[in-house]
Amino acid sequence: MEAPQDQPKTFVEHLAELRKLLIQTLIVFVIALGVAFSYVDRVLVWLEIPAVRAGLGRPMVLGAGEVVRVYFMLAGVTALGVTLPFLLLQIWRFVAPGLTPRERRAALAYIPMALFIFLAGVSFGYFLVFPTVFRFLIRLGAEQFNVQITAGNYFGFMINLIVPLGLVFELPLVTMFLTRLGIVTPATLGKMRKYAYLVLVIIGAMITPPDFVSHLSVTIPMILLYELSVTVSKWVWARRQKNPDDPVEN
């Protein structure tokens, strides 16, 4: 009698595999960081466009130390973006053996969509939300102050605004996936609406300056994304009820 080819792995073996995947991801990140660091000067010119259009010119630095911090901050964010597809692939390799064939097909279809939607959210933040908020804040203080901004503050504010928006844009996709698996239902999302709004308002307050306009410019899109998630969940749930064997196994 032949022994089964696929033997369940022990907890220690799972930890060893996870460690290997994390090390591989770290190596990719370090390589991407080195490459990104050598191209930061080109990225800087592109990211400084909102400041130039607001009439401030290029952000200033207060010493050589800030130059290094800004370079590493931008190179780090760029490297994270480059490493993200590889990280998703590693996560997939780790969890795929524990999924059924239909769950694998369902999950695999979401990886490219997740990358595209994240980039769409970051683009929305950079091209629309950040310039609007930045110009408003500059004009707000221009009448009373000689407004100047350091590179560290400028790029830190930009990253803290657009990266969370990219993550929040994933909400409808995550909701779609969880609804297909039967973990989330439209009824649950409806009951959680007021709590979700509160959480989104808090997140909006954390990533924006303490002024009403900036807060609304971020919070309103996030609330709309939640409502879109509810609509998507209803659509997926209706399809799942009509054909429960189509997406994943129940």
Automatic annotation (TrEMBL):
Record-annotated membrane-spanning stretches: 21-40, 70-95, 107-134, 154-183, 195-212
Membrane topology value: Multi-pass membrane protein
Pfam families, alphabetized: TatC (PF00902)
One example of a Gene Ontology biological process annotation: protein transport by the Tat complex
Subcellular location: Cell membrane; Membrane
GO molecular function, one term: proton motive force dependent protein transmembrane transporter activity
This protein's record includes keyword Ribonucleoprotein: no
Record keywords: Cell membrane, Membrane, Protein transport, Translocation, Transmembrane, Transmembrane helix, Transport
Main location (coarse class): membrane
Cellular compartments per GO CC: TAT protein transport complex
NCBIfam families, per the entry: tatC
Protein family according to the UniProt entry: Belongs to the TatC family.
UniProt-listed PANTHER family: SEC-INDEPENDENT PROTEIN TRANSLOCASE PROTEIN TATC, SEC-INDEPENDENT PROTEIN TRANSLOCASE PROTEIN TATCD
HAMAP family: TatC
Function in brief: Part of the twin-arginine translocation (Tat) system that transports large folded proteins containing a characteristic twin-arginine motif in their signal peptide across membranes.
Assembly notes: Forms a complex with TatA.
Protein name as annotated: Sec-independent protein translocase protein TatC
Species, as recorded: Kyrpidia tusciae (strain DSM 2912 / NBRC 15312 / T2) (Bacillus tusciae)
Gene name as annotated: tatC
